[in-house]
Amino acid sequence: MTEAVKKGERLSGARREELAKELAEAYQSGRSIRQLAAETGRSYGAVHRLLVDHGVTLRGRGGARRAKVT
């Protein structure tokens, strides 16, 4: 993956697109947004925004589902 981006550093242009593409590939191969955030030094929200802006369909939240009470 691209070298870690310094905390608070703005991403723009080609560098933002490159990071978004790499994050999209990693996310689609099964990595979580939290894992990607930790690896890149970006916040959860920043990684989420990059993925959405890049057109990635996000997975649903995990965990057990409760049965409906009728």
Automatic annotation (TrEMBL):
<dbReference type="Pfam" id="PF19575">
    <property type="entry name" value="HTH_58"/>
</dbReference>
<protein>
    <submittedName>
        <fullName>Helix-turn-helix domain-containing protein</fullName>
    </submittedName>
</protein>
<dbReference type="InterPro" id="IPR045745">
    <property type="entry name" value="HTH_58_Actinobacteria-type"/>
</dbReference>
<feature type="domain" description="Helix-turn-helix">
    <location>
        <begin position="5"/>
        <end position="66"/>
    </location>
</feature>
